[in-house]
Design a protein that fits this description.
Chain lengths: 518, 263
């Protein structure tokens, strides 16, 4: 009678020789066969090798099947134990299939980075209509290229804005990271539009995103002090501009007292102006408006394909959702979701959301703070926040008051080092170092990924500089400046207590440090 | 059922009975090959299938099943008990975001006797034993949930959260209202605490506290705030924020012993 194979046996992946010696030949000797008589090259020994190879392949399939049916292994929550030879079976490649087949949850694909590019035409020629695609391409100093993503006509002697998307979806493991800075020097790749130049300035304010259906508009203006800031304005009494009651919150702080003015300096140099836009009442109760300062040329933050771990967390979050009642269309009516339930709702609703923090409010009874962010904790566009707020509001929860916000970018700058490289490698090293530091501060460094409210690792940043290809010497003292304070140690964000911040490094290595060549 | 019950000799029997396979030696050789490649593969594949079924799985597989089904388990819990509970994971998940869910979670992580005291004056606890997990039978622990009122306020409780004119006193909760007082913020009724009585856990290790915190966070509604875990060793207690005020047996201050773990 055979003995049942153990867990350890099943997940082991032996070699052909191991199978031969541990399984095939023992079966023969068990039948009183003298396998030592089988000559090398003879038909029986050769057959035994063939059987061993086939069995080894079967063992690999068996081990894969065993592990691929355990979600902890599929979703990378843990790894199968190593076999005697130290081999660890990786079945995370099955994650997308398991998520789709068991949970009806497709993996979130990698997304493009989209930017608003300003096209200045100084010629007397009009170009267009140009179709989306590589007919119009631009390149950033990092080497990242973007293609036109909308139909546009560049009229003669005008300035036109158009949406461009990254050449490829985000893939940080392959070095496809599109966190280029606003205000870069852009190069036209396609040369058949004489007189046209491209630029990507960051406006002082983002577009105002609106969660609701009211016709009223809110417009920010002024010269903001000590940016960045994120601003939310909610309507507490319906009405027209000048009558409607509204409150504001800056950087996630508490809501202000109720205001009724149609134009008001709300602080930090920011003035907001309400306009009816032909509505009456134009501003509706509980609707929320969002904007940030500074604005950004980025309209969509690109993100990598969802990791098996993140996909698994999204699937696991569906389980508490069983507690939700459903409407006649099978949609959840969450009366009071758990934290993981909220996380799954939010992640399923928007592919740009890669990080979710859920925390009960410290003061307000039923308020649930939900902070959403993109890859590495990058702030999401105001429109994403508004859409998410609207999405959760549509559930009409009995008592919960979810309050969505995104992270706030915190400017970080580096200085103090003198970097020595061979003159022939100066440009390449500066470009490489810029990319390495952009990946780190963008949360895309594979070895030290950072997220919302990260610890900026002083030694790691220094090591990124020192190990950049071409760098032969680094002298001086690295200084990390955050909120006008220089640090020569690790720096813990947030700089503003209680805020949710992500690091934003917008220098280039060539300007951050002094460079000497040999 | 065990894998012995599905032990295979299918391929070896088949190949050794082929007319083309004649002679004792040849039958043995082909039998060995068929066994190594065919029958063992059938048996191993069967065992793989069984390893994913809680009633037949090995200890290692039970641990993985418990994790993927998000079961709460106690460190010393018998594998057989986890295996018996595993098929009922969806029934358990239905209590997500409820007080009963928190109490069930604490029970299965090894912490019995918990009371959830809510500021709104309700106290929830669980009577034991829970219904047995029997395959084919619906598992319903709701009759085990006991909800009682906390003690009534002996006087008016006036909120320290005041309207915009600071001189105006906050709203008042009248006397005789069942209430658990965390502080004077009468508006913040989404708060609760986990209280153990009868000296059940005179000292909670750091690992115990972590398991409790994780369990409470997993099951509570996202909007609810747990203000702490309290273990009353003796006497009586009231007001649990940030540390418990205690009340002596004879209605005098002092005389009680409470340990506190923040959440």
């Amino acid at each position: 009678m055979m003995q049942a194979p153990s867990f350890t046996d099943i997940i082991a992946v032996p070699t052909q020789d191991e199978v031969l010696n541990q399984e095939v030949l023992p079966e023969a000797t068990r039948r009183s066969l003298r396998v030592t008589d089988w000559n090398p090259g003879g038909v029986w020994r050769t057959s035994a090798y063939v059987i061993a190879l086939m069995r080894a392949n079967a063992r690999l399939a068996i081990a894969t099947l065993m592990c691929a049916l355990f979600e902890d292994y599929v979703f990378g929550k843990s790894q199968p134990p190593a076999d005697a030879d130290g081999n660890v079976l990786d079945v995370t490649g099955w994650a997308a299939l398991v998520a789709q087949q068991r949970y009806g949850t497709p993996i979130i694909d990698a997304t493009y980075t989209r930017r608003t590019i300003t096209l200045t035409n100084t010629s007397l020629s009009s170009y267009g209509p140009l179709q989306p695609g590589p007919s119009l391409m631009i390149q950033f100093p990092s080497g990242n290229r973007y293609v036109l993503d909308q139909v546009v006509t560049i009229a003669a002697n005008t300035t036109t804005t158009a949406t461009f998307r990254s050449e490829f979806p985000n893939d940080s493991t392959a070095g496809l990271v599109y966190n280029d800075m606003a205000g870069s020097t852009l190069q036209m790749i396609t040369s058949n539009y004489a007189g046209v130049t491209a630029s990507n300035p960051a406006p002082p304010f983002s577009p105002v995103a609106h969660a609701g259906t009211g016709l009223g508009t809110i417009t920010p203006s002024g010269t903001p002090t000590s940016p960045p800031h994120s601003v939310a304005i909610r309507i507490v009494t319906s009405g027209v501009a000048g009558v409607a009651g509204w409150q504001y919150a800056i950087d996630g702080a508490a809501w202000s007292a109720t205001q009724t003015s149609s134009s008001l300096l709300i602080g930090d140099g920011i003035t907001v102006t309400l306009a009816d836009n032909s509505g009456n009442p134009s501003f509706l109760l509980n609707e929320v408006y969002y904007f940030t300062t500074p604005g950004s040329d980025i309209t969509q933050v690109g993100a990598d394909v969802e990791t098996p771990q993140a996909l698994g967390a999204r699937c696991r979050g569906l389980i508490p959702a069983i507690a939700f009642p459903q409407d006649s269309n099978g949609r959840w009516i969450p009366i009071s979701p758990t934290a993981s339930g909220y996380e799954t709702l939010v992640r399923n609703a928007n592919a740009n959301v890669r990080i979710v923090l859920v925390a009960p409010d410290g003061t307000v009874n039923n308020k649930v703070n939900i902070v959403i962010a993109g890859n590495g904790g990058a702030p999401l566009a105001s429109v994403d926040v508004a859409n998410m707020q609207q999405f959760l509001a549509a559930f009409s929860m009995e008592t919960d008051a979810p309050n969505v916000s995104t992270s706030t970018g915190r400017a970080v700058s580096l200085s103090g080092l003198t970097v020595t490289v061979p003159s022939s490698q100066l440009t390449a090293s500066q470009t490489s170092m810029t990319q390495r530091l952009q990946k780190y501060f963008g949360g895309l460094d594979a070895f030290t990924p950072i997220s919302i409210n990260p610890l900026l690792d002083y030694d790691y940043i220094l090591s990124l500089v020192r190990t950049t290809p071409g760098v032969t010497k680094v002298s001086g003292t690295l200084t990390i400046t955050v909120n006008s304070v220089g640090y020569t140690t690790d720096v813990q964000l947030p700089a503003t207590p209680g805020a949710f911040e992500s690091a934003q490094w917008s220098q280039s290595a060539s300007s951050a440090f002094s460079w000497t060549t040999t | 059922m065990s894998v012995q019950g599905v032990s295979s000799s299918l391929y070896e029997s088949w190949i050794t009975n082929l007319k083309a396979v004649q002679g004792t030696i040849r039958k043995r050789i082909f039998g060995a090959f068929a066994r190594a490649l065919g029958d063992k593969t059938v048996e191993w594949m069967t065992q793989v299938n069984l390893e994913h079924m809680p009633s037949f799985a090995s200890d290692q597989s039970i641990a993985l099943i418990a994790s993927e089904r998000q079961l709460d388990t106690a460190p010393s819990e018998a594998t057989s008990a986890i295996a018996a509970r595993a098929p009922f994971w969806l029934q358990l998940a239905q209590f997500s975001g409820s007080g009963l869910g928190i109490l069930l979670g604490l029970h299965f992580t090894g912490f019995d006797g918990a009371y959830l005291v809510q500021q709104n004056g309700l106290a929830l606890t669980l009577t034991l034993p829970l219904p047995a997990f029997t395959l084919g039978t619906k598992w319903d622990p709701t009759p085990n949930l006991v909800v009682t009122n906390c003690s009534q306020l002996t006087g008016v409780l006036t909120s320290n959260v005041t309207p915009p004119t600071w001189m105006t006193p906050g709203r008042s909760i009248p006397a005789s209202q069942p209430w658990w007082k965390f502080d004077d913020n009468t508006d913040f009724c989404s708060r609760f605490a986990v209280v153990f009585t009868a000296n059940q856990y005179p000292s909670l290790s750091a690992a115990d506290q972590t398991r409790m915190r994780n369990t409470i966070s997993k099951w509570r509604p996202a909007k609810a705030t747990c203000v702490g875990i309290y273990s009353l060793s003796s006497g009586q207690m009231w007001q649990t924020l940030p540390t418990a005020a205690t009340w002596g047996h004879a209605g005098n201050w002092g005389g009680s012993v409470v340990s506190y773990a923040g959440v």
